[in-house]
Amino acid sequence: MPKNEKLKSILIIGSGPIVIGQACEFDYSGTQALRSLREDGIETILINSNPATIMTDPSMADHVYLKPLNTKSIVEILKEHPQIDAVLPTMGGQTALNLCIEANEKGIWEDFDVELIGVDIDAINITEDREQFRELMLKIGIPMAPQATANSYLKGKEIAQEFGFPLVIRASYTLGGAGASFVHKEEDFDKLLTRGLEVSPIHEVMIDKALLGWKEYELELLRDKNDNVVIICTIENMDPMGIHTGDSITVAPAMTLSDKTFQRMRDMAIHMMRSIGDFAGGCNVQFAVSPDEKEDIIAIEINPRVSRSSALASKATGYPIAKIASKLAIGYTLDEVSNQITQSTSALFEPTLDYVIVKIPRWNFDKFEGSDRTLGLQMKSVGEVMGIGRSFQEALHKATQSLEIKRNGLGADGKGYKNYDQIIEKLTYASWDRVFVIYDAIQMGIPLSRIHEITKIDMWFLKQYEELYNLEKEISTFTVQSLSKGLLLEAKQKGFADRQIAHMLNCYESEVYKKREELGVKRVYKLVDTCAAEFKAATPYYYSTFEEEIKTKEGETLISNESEVSDRKKIVVLGSGPNRIGQGIEFDYCCVHGVLAAAECGYETVMINCNPETVSTDFDTADKLYFEPVFWEHIYDIIRHEKPEGVIVQLGGQTALKLAEKLDRYGIKVLGTSFQALDLAEDRGSFSTLLKENNIPYPEFDTAETADEALAVADRLNFPILVRPSYVLGGQGMKIVINKQELEEHVVDLLRKIPNNKLLLDHYLDGAIEAEADAICDGENVYIIGIMEHIEPCGIHSGDSNATLPPFNLGEFVMQQIKDHTKKIALALNTVGLINIQFAIKDDMVYIIEANPRASRTVPFIAKAYGEPYVNYATKVMLGDKKVTDFDFKPRLEGYAIKQPVFSFNKFPNVNKKLGPEMKSTGESILFIDDLKDDEFYDLYSRRKMYLSK
User: Fold this and answer.
1) H or E segment to which residue 11 belongs
2) Which residue did the predictor score with more confidence, 200 or 272?
3) Does an H or E element contain 756, and which?
4) What is the pLDDT, as a whole number, of residue 950?
5) Which of 931, 784, 778 is nearest to 862 (CA)?
6) DSSP structure class, residue 541
């Protein structure tokens, strides 16, 4: 039982829909917290409006409320559950903290006699109110940058006059650096000050003297009620001050910090945490360090909650911060909680890493046309990846290979920049691809001293890059036949992919792979064990690396591989990689459910993924976790090592689906729908032919592979025409064109970005209603799990539409056509598992827009709305364990559920906010209404055409 016996029932506040600055790391921490509290027999009540997450799964909490995150919902829940003793708001990001403060100000916690645990109100207020925080830091002797608070335009002008430029403006009570900016010149100050004051909910900004070029560090701390404090992880930002930590490339452990300065920083962090309040839980502290010999330390901020960095630190160290933080919040002390990884030591220890981790953010600027792509104080990334290696170079390469931006790593892929001015520009104004541009600059011969002068990135990191380039140069002088084992091994230890080595040697990737096999240069797997192998780890959480063989005195050659393969039947589930617009947390939800379902069928489950924010990469979700890039070479080696029965690709979004062809070519079984059927649905032309053969209506169409062909097609079809490339996700590159000039411009642009693609041109059904259906098929029977009608007209991407379940104004005749078409298509594609089909309805005729034989964005939404574990059922069908007819489907929903998209346009003030066939939303929430007279439904319906654009 918990040490605080009074706590029997706890309310947890989630973080709501995913927005830039607050993503699925809170789904991960919230899920861990719920599991942790339930282990102690505590009743858990959760409020969160996000249907796409594991956190809101009925199996996670005793009571899940998919309600809007406001005080009205909190009061409703507290009335329904008078037994709630406490609220834990530290697992839901800034949204939860802000809601907790609002409820406190309204006296709600007091009225219902609810205790606040994991943090206290004073701590939140002190850390959010920059003036209060500054005063406290100066009082306890912690240095801060010169700064002052302004709550009016006039006061802001006075401060700027006193400090001089450059300056930093930060808005109070905001998240992800919203409203923050650098001001280099006086003429920009007025506009940026006004924006900061407007963004802050209390119309207050803090103006700091800018610490340009200083190094930035983050520390993750945990404290218990006895005031024991442990520092879980020290993270160094490769990018210096001036770029939001969520947009920075970060490294753990810290690489360029002297031990003396590290000890000072530790002491300061502990002193700061103890000074902000008397609470047990987690904390994240950020510091700036001067880049000279003095290494002066200045405090930037402290967050008394789990954060984006705590998810990263948890995955980097294997220490489950959110899980332990929840134990501390209910009264345990660190020495009473066991270390989850070793299971033989306590949690009162500081992890030691015998490997390096590198996190790189993932951006989606292509979705925000006209956006400012330079990085600064306001976070702009939509996700992140993490690479684990034995050296910084190996981890950096693995992280770049995980990004899925058509790069094979640093350099050696022919895609680097060659223009001197362009390279200097991208280094000067920190660009999203600066991690690659540094390599290009070295390749061009720009001296390291010049790169350092421009970027202020520490020389140590730049020298690591230089070593990589020198190795590339050396390897390029050989052929695949003459390359020595020593050089090949060094390239692999530094993280170069076979594809990159093939580029250097001017040969095929398969030839490099064969050479590695011949020379015995093979991947080995190491455990992430939190304690540098000092104690035996009991958790199967692995990363790959390459090792030199050792000869024993008996003459045997040895290589240490810590991943032991069992003789059980195994299934590999491919994860969805980094979050991005069009492929978000809903696929992580599907992967986790797939893993759990396969385990129920008696399989050993193996998860491969590289996203540190997700539940699928939690060390106890699958039987074995490989924290590796979802990149062919890594996957193939794991499969050869584990020898599974097959691989599930239809739960990991487009990332996993794209690997189906290779798996099929290499004779690896794709479980569920075959690669041929997946490919048929992806290839727009072949799919339309299949519809024709089955007498299923579709808009008039034709395919084109050049601009000339597209113009010839336009003569046969009437404008407007919808142009769609094959094999893309989130509507990438889709556009409605209304004349030949627009058509030609768009096709030329598309084929430049996606060469050799087959484009589908179809007549756009203007004014049509859009609907979609998800179904499970076992090859013989089809069960439709849900049919949704979009409130917005056809032409707005389904991910950006308000989808209503069940449909609200489709007649019996239309509904029957949807059901018939869905069943016919699912069977014609030989679907085994999930399928999503989208329809356009005009004049009571149902036309097919597209079909995706995989998990879709809407599956978690339908599962939550109907209270049925559809992914579990579909996985059992994929594995051949069950038929559709074996399940007793009992969907329950009174009234309607609406999937509402959420956008992050406020991060890009100058961007065109119109919606069209290309998806732009970053997340979603779920809204339940009793009937169509509901005001919110009426409001959505009345605005349905407002944002439609080409």
Assistant:
1) strand 9-13
2) 272
3) none
4) 45
5) 784
6) E
